[in-house]
Design brief:
globular; 14% strand
Length: 185
């Protein structure tokens, strides 16, 4: 933001990227117009399946990260079909992520505390989640929404964890309405 002379912005984070987004919003309220969380769990360290995947696989990844691993890892995160050409493009991009980034991101995500600094988020927040998300359940999203004072929760039916891949028009519509409303306030 500094490099591009952006004074304030809407800060968005998807999945575990929501941890960085919400921490930014808490630390820099004067620079945050709004916070948008997409399928972002309140925390991951309390989910035994996620911890097991980290311990058995993610913490041991080496370069190059196998395309088969990437397909298997992301494959169980959708509820609706995603166009094959788009998936291929995304799988190709994900293969460029070094193993150390997978390991470090997984470790940091498991150590993220809840509610952490969420009480310091003063900007309006939009929490969007897929109703069929196996990682960020509706109950978890409600807990997250309750921890952020000025938040609204939007649960999109028939979408899973990768809701922005599965239903881009629905996600874009929710974000656009949120941004429009926040800018009018």
């Amino acid at each position: 933001m500094d490099a591009n002379a952006i004074e304030k912005a809407f800060i968005a984070g998807a999945s575990s990227g929501g941890f960085a987004a919400r921490n930014f919003a808490a630390k820099y309220p004067e620079r945050t117009l709004g916070l948008i969380l997409l399928g972002s769990p309140s925390k991951l360290g309390n989910q035994p399946e996620i911890v097991a995947i980290h311990e058995s696989t993610l913490s041991h990844l080496t370069d190059p990260v196998s395309p088969e691993f990437i397909r298997k890892f992301t494959g169980g995160l959708f509820n609706k079909p995603v166009p094959a050409d788009f998936l291929e493009k995304m799988f190709h991009e994900i293969q460029n992520v070094p193993a150390r980034v997978w390991r470090e991101t997984s470790e940091a995500a498991l150590n993220e505390k809840f509610p952490g600094f969420l009480h310091q988020v003063t900007a309006p927040a939009l929490i969007i989640s897929g109703k069929e998300d196996p990682i960020a359940s509706q109950e978890d999203q409600q807990k997250l929404s309750s921890a952020i004072v000025n938040s609204q929760l939007c649960i999109l039916p028939q979408l899973g964890h990768m809701l922005y891949w599965e239903g881009p028009p629905e996600v874009a519509k929710a974000i656009t309405q949120f941004v429009d409303k926040a800018q009018k306030s």
